[in-house]
C-alpha cells in the first residue's frame, strides 16, 4: 500500500507568520484532502486539493488564509497564513484512490502539530 | 444538524473483554459509506473498518466488527478481546452520495483499556 508522509511533523510558530505543510504520497492518487483538528476536537475538512487547478474549499475556509497547491498526483501543500493562536491544531492530509486500496477509503498522513504563540 | 453522533465521550474496558462504541448517523441519501478510525496519542488517523450502505453483511476486520443497523441509522464498532494498545480516540465518519468524497466526523470516543 502507499505511504503518506507530511513535513514538518510539528512546529512552533510566531503569530503573524506563515507555515507551509507538505504532503507526499509514494504512488499516484486520485484525490487529496486537507483536514484540521483543533485541540480536543474532531476533524474538519478544509479543502480538496485539485491537481492542476484551484482547491475546493469548505464553508468557513478561504484561499487567502489556507492556500493549497497540488502540482501533481503525488504531492500537495497547505499554507497556514498570517497565523494566530487559534490556528494551533493538527493538520492532516488524506488521500483517496491509490492503486490497490479500497476505493471508498481515505487514508491519512501522520499529521502536522502546529502551535502558534 | 449533526450528521454523525457519538454519544460516549469516554469508555473503559477491561483487557481481553469486548467493547462497543456507538455511532448514529443522519442522511437522506441512499448511497453512503461509514468508516471508523483510530487516533492514538501520536495523532495519526488509522483506518479500521468500512461499511457501505448497500452492503448486505456487517463488515469485519480482525478484532473489529461493525454492527450496522440501517433502519436505526446506527453503525456501532465492536472491538473484541481488547488490548492495552487499543487505548485511543475512536472516530466514526460518513461519506454521502455515490460521488461524494467528503468525510464528516463524529466527536469521537476515548477508549481506555484497563489491565
Structural class of chain A, by secondary structure, is mainly beta
The total count of helices of chain A amounts to 0
Going by helix content, strand content and strand pairing, the class of chain B is mainly beta
Q: Count helical runs of chain B.
A: 0
Name a few traits of the molecule.
heterodimer, A: 117 residues, mainly beta, 7-stranded mixed beta sheet, 4-stranded antiparallel beta sheet, 11 strands, 0% helix, globular, B: 115 residues, 6-stranded mixed beta sheet, 51% strand
Task: Outline the structure in words.
The complex is a heterodimer of chains A (117) and B (115). Chain A is mostly beta strands. Helix content of chain A is 0%, strand content 49%. In chain A, strands 2, 4, 5, 6, 9, 10 and 11 form a seven-stranded mixed beta sheet that branches. The N and C termini of chain A lie far apart (38 Å). In chain B, strands 2, 5, 6, 10, 11 and 12 form a six-stranded mixed beta sheet that branches. In chain B, strand 7 (60-61) and strand 8 (64-69) form a beta hairpin. The mean pLDDT of chain B is 94. The radius of gyration of chain B is 14 Å and the shape is globular. Chain B is mostly beta strands and 115 residues long. Chains A and B meet through strand 4, strand 5, strand 9 and strand 10 of A and strand 5, strand 6, strand 10 and strand 11 of B.
Amino acid at each position: 500500500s502507499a505511504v503518506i508522509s507530511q513535513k514538518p511533523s510539528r512546529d512552533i510558530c510566531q503569530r503573524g507568520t506563515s507555515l507551509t505543510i507538505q504532503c507526499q504520497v509514494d504512488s499516484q492518487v486520485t484525490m487529496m484532502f486537507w483536514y484540521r483538528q483543533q485541540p480536543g476536537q474532531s476533524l474538519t475538512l478544509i479543502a480538496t486539493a485539485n491537481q492542476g487547478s484551484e482547491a475546493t474549499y469548505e464553508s468557513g475556509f478561504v484561499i487567502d488564509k489556507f492556500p493549497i497547491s497540488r502540482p501533481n498526483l503525488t504531492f500537495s501543500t497547505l499554507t497556514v497564513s498570517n497565523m494566530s493562536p487559534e490556528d494551533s491544531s493538527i493538520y492532516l492530509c488524506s488521500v483517496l484512490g491509490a492503486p490497490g486500496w479500497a476505493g471508498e477509503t481515505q487514508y491519512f498522513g501522520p499529521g502536522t502539530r502546529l502551535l502558534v504563540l | 444538524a449533526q450528521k454523525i453522533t457519538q454519544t460516549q465521550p469516554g469508555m473503559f474496558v477491561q483487557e481481553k473483554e469486548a467493547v462497543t462504541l456507538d455511532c448514529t448517523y443522519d442522511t437522506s441519501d441512499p448511497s453512503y459509506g461509514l468508516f471508523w478510525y483510530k487516533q492514538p496519542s501520536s495523532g495519526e488517523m488509522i483506518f479500521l473498518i468500512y461499511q457501505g450502505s448497500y452492503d448486505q453483511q456487517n463488515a469485519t476486520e480482525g478484532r473489529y466488527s461493525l454492527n450496522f443497523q440501517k433502519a436505526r441509522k446506527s453503525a456501532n464498532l465492536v472491538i473484541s478481546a481488547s488490548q492495552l494498545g487499543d487505548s485511543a480516540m475512536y472516530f466514526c465518519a460518513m461519506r454521502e452520495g455515490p460521488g461524494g468524497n467528503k468525510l464528516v466526523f463524529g466527536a469521537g470516543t476515548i477508549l481506555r483499556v484497563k489491565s
